[in-house]
Amino acid sequence: MQAGWLQLRVALFLVLALSAGVAYAHQGAGGKSEAAAAQPAPSPRLVAQGQALFQKYCATCHAPRDGKRDEAPSLAGLYQRKLTPAMKHPVNDANIGGHIKQGGPVMPPFPWLGKEEIAALLAYLKTL
Ligand code: HEC
């Protein structure tokens, strides 16, 4: 009698442990596939927002595309280059975003631009 109860309890424990393990593994797999999802391409709305910000804050010095004004380097084709035009830093979001926020030797800083505004400006600069 006693031995029978013990066997039943052990069997019950094993079933519970197994189902908990399966549930945990299932959850883990779901989380992993979400994290591996590719970054979405910038939406047209974000690019349009960036263009509006650029016209407002940047175009006075950086005329896009026409290359006629000489106050600041042209940013046309910026993301096709390896190095930034003035500072010769590698072209990436961290360096360009940082330059916008901190400014350069001549360019004024824009420290009050928020994360989303910087993201919009970067999305627009990539289309030049
Ligand atoms: C008052 C003029 C002026 C304004 C306004 C201005 N810039 Fe500049 N920008 C410059 C000058 C001059 C340089 C080159 C020297 C320097 O960085 O000081 C430059 C350089 C840059 C560079 C190249 C940085 C590098 O590493 O070579 C980027 C990118 C840039 N500006 C983006 C922007 C963006 C985006 C805005 C608007 C938010 C903006 N600038 C507003 C004058 C300006």
Automatic annotation (TrEMBL):
InterPro entries in the record? Cyt_c-like_dom (IPR009056), Cyt_c-like_dom_sf (IPR036909)
Domain of life of the native organism: Bacteria
Which terms are listed as keywords in the entry?
Heme, Iron, Metal-binding, Signal
Query: Which GO molecular function annotation, any one, does this entry have?
Result: electron transfer activity
Q: Name one Pfam family in it.
A: Cytochrom_C
Thylakoid in keyword set: no
- Record PROSITE patterns: CYTC
Domain (Cytochrome c) spans 45-128
Q: Which parts pass through the membrane?
A: none
Q: May I ask which residue range the UniProt record assigns to the signal sequence?
A: 1-25
In its keyword annotation, does this UniProt entry include Heme?
A: yes
Q: What is this protein called?
A: Cytochrome c domain-containing protein
